[in-house]
Design a protein that fits this description.
This protein is mostly helical. Helix content is 48%, strand content 8%. The chain has 22 helices and twelve strands.
């Protein structure tokens, strides 16, 4: 069996190939965070937009969206201000938070800190290049990306409510009014567009995205349930004690204090069985990215020889990026078709295709002057920033993030984790039951097995091209060195294990139940 609830099973050679890719992704992510160039400028622009709607939201009691029952959120009537305090401000400013990009200083208002972080520019022109402004750096970029992601997550939850979506949409329009453009008028239409083209039903298809949390290290039984039942996205989560008397202790462990506006603040940081990234007892892991300690201590020769200017070698660079945080790869065990094929192709997985990437792109789509589809100048650098953010926290890998952004930037296809992209026209015909009206050759093309080549093929070459276009000019040589280290290490593995040259594919055919028998 290749995959099960305990994850994807790999042999020693396959695991070595995946480890090689983990190191490459960590190296590129560090380069992006250290010298983001246009990536930082994009998040400066959208951070300022987000600040311009959050600041009056928190300050103005008279806004319609701040009535006590302005929205329904997680089954409760709430003021929109209180929703964003619980979903955006508290996770980034609570002392119990395990999030990357969080507030690390004591004292002061969390809302004031959020405003300062979002409205203060990261980047400045220096010698014809975009460089970090004084006293700004990678942690500040992580804050802006996390804030955008949290905003997008909240927009999704509010508008995806089948019963209260219209009511919630009215409150969002009021919140977005300070932007002064089409954002307020079009926010619901943009959400509908995003749901039909990017975060579609295919995205959360259980066969592709299956994942479960690693068991908690506790001395009582914890039952698994659907993450969606707890507002935790997708997968099987362990947040319910089998014996109700243990629930308060479990909530405390997970940082779940809903009465204080704090929801599962430490869910990525709690100790779990089989977690690959070790931490000191009672403390959060400090080393970022997806590698285990053994992978870092025994670097392949090509990586051990790398030098990154005055920052030193690969291990020194990792040391410079240490930050206490909860890691996604310690939490999740993905085992669906997407994770399985990624691993068999030598690409790592951490949490299946990334809902957080979708949330960040939805945030940009909501805040943008005219939307972001067919805007590669916005989406490509934003996607690189999100990919580095997700990899830093070990939440998601490049295969789980970058293709999502590319489908938005290209503006011609629906994102489909089973094939990379899928014809929106063919999908519409399929849903309407009109495939039988087409010629045989067209029907065969629309219903033929699809595979994930568009997700995985030449992913790292495409990534390197994007980094060269949008990140700081100073990292191009280092990214080229990382690419060469990855390729030479992989070639050495393939020489020793020729089976790694094979290209596995997992094929599926997707038809509506009512069409089975018509075209099979």
């Amino acid at each position: 069996m290749v995959s099960s609830e305990k994850g994807v099973s790999l042999d020693q050679a396959q695991e070595a190939a995946v480890s090689n890719s983990r190191l490459f992704e960590a190296g590129v992510s560090m380069m992006i965070l250290d010298d983001p160039g246009q990536i930082g400028r994009v998040f400066d622009d959208y951070g300022a937009k987000l600040a311009s709607v959050l600041t009056p939201l928190f300050a103005d009691d008279a806004k319609a969206c701040n009535k006590p029952d302005a929205v329904m959120f997680n089954g409760k009537p709430m003021a929109l201000r209180d929703v964003f305090r619980s979903t955006l401000v508290n996770p980034l400013t609570s002392p119990a938070s395990d999030q990357i990009g969080r507030k690390t200083t004591s004292g002061g208002s969390g809302e004031d800190w959020i405003h300062s972080q979002l409205s203060s520019p990261l980047m400045r022109e220096q010698g014809g290049e975009l460089k970090y402004a004084d006293q700004k750096g990678g942690n500040d970029l992580l804050t802006k990306i996390k804030a955008a992601s949290s905003f997008g997550t909240t927009v999704w939850q509010l508008l995806n409510d089948k019963i209260h979506g219209e009511k919630n949409g009215a409150a969002l329009r009021d919140m977005l009014a300070p932007l002064g453009g089409s954002q307020s008028r079009d926010c619901v239409a943009r959400f509908d567009e995003f749901k039909s083209r990017t975060r579609t039903e295919r995205f959360d298809d259980a066969v592709s995205r299956m994942r479960s949390e690693r068991p908690l290290q506790v001395d009582y039984q914890v039952d698994y349930s659907s993450a969606g039942d707890h507002g935790l996205g997708f997968g099987r989560v362990a947040v319910t004690a089998h014996d109700a008397k243990n629930q308060p202790a479990l909530d405390e462990l997970l940082g779940h204090k809903p009465a204080e506006g704090q929801r599962y603040a430490n869910i990525n940081g709690v100790p779990r069985q089989g977690a690959p990234i070790e931490s000191d007892p009672g403390k959060l892991p400090t080393r970022p990215f997806t590698m285990s300690r053994a992978e870092v201590e025994k670097l392949p020769e090509a990586y051990a020889k790398l030098q990154f200017g005055d920052k030193g070698g690969f291990q020194e660079l990792l040391k410079q990026h240490e930050f206490p945080h909860g890691t996604g790869v310690n939490r999740w065990q993905p085992y669906g078709t997407f994770a399985t094929e990624s691993n068999l192709r030598g690409l790592p997985s951490a949490g299946a295709q990334s809902g957080g990437t979708c949330d960040t792109l939805l945030a940009l789509h909501t805040l943008s002057d005219e939307g972001i589809y067919n805007r590669p100048d916005i989406v490509e650098p934003a996607t690189l920033g999100v990919a580095a953010f997700m990899n830093f926290g070990a939440y998601h890998t490049f295969a789980e993030t970058i293709p999502i952004g590319m489908s938005v930037a290209n503006d011609d296809d629906e994102y489909n984790p089973s094939s990379g992209t899928a014809s929106a026209y063919g999908e519409a015909l399929q849903k309407q039951g009109k495939l039988q009206d087409l010629p045989d050759y067209a029907t065969a093309e629309l219903t033929a097995p699809v595979h994930t080549n568009l997700q995985h093929d030449a992913l790292y070459d495409r990534l390197a091209n994007l980094v060269g276009q949008h990140a700081g000019a100073g990292i191009a040589g280092h990214v080229a060195d990382l690419s060469e280290a990855h390729k030479s290490t992989l070639e050495a593995l393939r020489s020793e294990h020729p089976e790694l040259r094979e290209t596995p594919q997992i094929q599926t055919t997707r038809l509506e139940l009512g069409q089975i028998g018509q075209h099979v």
